[in-house]
Structure formats: C-alpha cells, structure tokens
Amino acid sequence: MAASAEDRSFTYVPAPAQWQLSTNAAYVHYTANETIGGVEFGWIPDVGDVPLVSDMSSNLLSRPLDVSRLGLIYAGAQKNIGPAGLTLVIVREDLIGIGEPAPPAMLDYATHAKARSLYNTPPTFAVYVAGLVFRWLLENGGLAAAEQRNIAKAKLLYDFIDSSEFYLNPVNKADRSRMNVPFRLADPELDADFLAGAAKHDLVELKGHRSVGGMRASLYNAMPIEGVQALVNYMSEFAATKG
C-alpha cells in the first residue's frame, strides 16, 4: 500500500508527496472513485514509467479522461454504462499477454484481444444497452457536457449540505465525489424518520452503506438535476420540521 487516509476515516485523498511507491513495483493501482465514503480522485496520479491501473467502475464516462495516462482501466457497467454483468476494459497493447505464470484463458486479456472480445458468448443485451447509452452521451454533448451536468448536480447538493447545520458531509472538499454524496444528520436518532419521509417523496435507496451508516445519494449520469433538486427540497423541509 502506497498511502492511506485511515487516520481521518478515509475522508480525503493523500497528497502524492506522502505516497511511498515501491521502486520495483509491477504496477500502481488506485480506485478513481470510492462509492462508500464519497471520495474521488479529481486527477490522474503521476507514477512515472510504472503502469497505472485503475478501477473506474463508478465514475467512468462521468468526465473526460486521458486514457493514454493509464496502462489499464477496468469498470463494471452498472453505474454509468449499462446493466450489471458487463465489464469494460481498456488495456495498453504492450501490457497484453505479459505476466508469469500465465493466467487461465478466460482471465487473460490476450485471449480476448485476439478474439475481438468474442472468445465466449458476450452478454448481448447488456452490450446493446451500453451502445444506447454511448449514443445518448454523444447526442447530448459527449463527456464534456456530462461533466458539466455532474458538476452542477454535485454542487447543488453539497452547497445545501454546507449551508445547513442539520446535515454534514465529512469529506475534504477538494476530494468530494461527484458521483456519491454521503451525508449525516446532526441527530442520528432521526435517520429512520428521514428515510421514511424520503420514501413518501419517491426518494429511495438513500440509506448509507452499512459500514459507515448515515445517508448516501448517488448522482450517476442517469440522475437528472431535477432529482437532486427534489432531494434538496425534501431535506430542507425535513430540517425545518425536525430542526
């Protein structure tokens, strides 16, 4: 492990100057967006000539990305791409087929590259839906426009939380995720009432991950800003009633 934010309950991204990278590392891995704690890298780490590998399952397609900076990107489709069951992999050609011992055929990227991703029967429906999503993104301004929509959604919710004494977000502002916004009520005894009231407003799945508690709002590409505004309106009404 090159760095850790455990000292502050994983609420920030450690500064690169604090990283302790191995001189003989085969690769450096990082998760671009942490969904449980709501921490996101707003930048691509510079690790020199060592291949950089990233799990981008929860923020791929949410912003423009210079893929040439990374050796390998992998992402589950279920956040911004399409249905669960599909995984997208972008791997640099010189990294395909290396490694000892060689992995089993199904786990070897060389197998899939040679077969043009058709070594086995692909999940055709998931691929079809992903294609529709890609087309929708292109027709709506591409990733540059998607980023602006995501910035606006996150700002709307974070600004409201920061302006309230009833709610709080523990994440360092520079490292806050645009995709996943965790927040807590000042009085955790009101959590159940908050969730019950939210459900009556058709605002569901707001309960935070069981490992951290509190609340969590996910603002993936498919969430329109109107949905975020509805949440902010409810949060304001709830605070006025219970505060």
How would you summarize the topology of this molecule?
Elements lengths: L27 E4 L1 E2 L4 E2 L11 E4 L16 E5 L10 E5 L17 H6 L9 H16 L2 H22 L3 E2 L11 E6 L5 H10 L14 E4 L6 H18 L1
Parallel strand pairs: 1-4, 4-5
Antiparallel strand pairs: 2-3, 5-6, 7-8, 8-9
Structure in words:
The structure is a single chain. With 243 residues, the protein is α/β, with parallel strands linked by helices. The protein folds into two domains: 6-123, Aspartate Aminotransferase, domain 2; 142-242, Aspartate Aminotransferase, domain 1 (Alpha-Beta Complex). The protein is 30% helix and 14% strand. The protein has five helices and nine strands, in the order ββββββαααββαβα. The chain has a four-stranded mixed beta sheet, with no helix packed on it. A three-stranded antiparallel beta sheet has the order 7-8-9, with helices on one face. Helix 3 packs parallel to helix 5 (225-242). The longest helix is centred in the middle third of the chain and has 22 residues, at 142-163. The radius of gyration is 20 Å and the shape is globular. The chain starts with 27 loop residues before the first strand and ends with a helix.
On the 0-100 scale, what is the average pLDDT?
A: 96
Can you tell me the CATH architecture of the largest domain?
A: 3-Layer(aba) Sandwich
Number of strands: 9
The CATH topology of the largest domain turns out to be Aspartate Aminotransferase, domain 2
In helices, the fraction of residues equals 25-40%
* Alpha carbon gyration radius: 20 Å
**Which blocks of ≥5 consecutive residues have pLDDT under 50?**
none
Assign the CATH superfamily of the largest domain: Type I PLP-dependent aspartate aminotransferase-like (Major domain)
Number of domains: 2
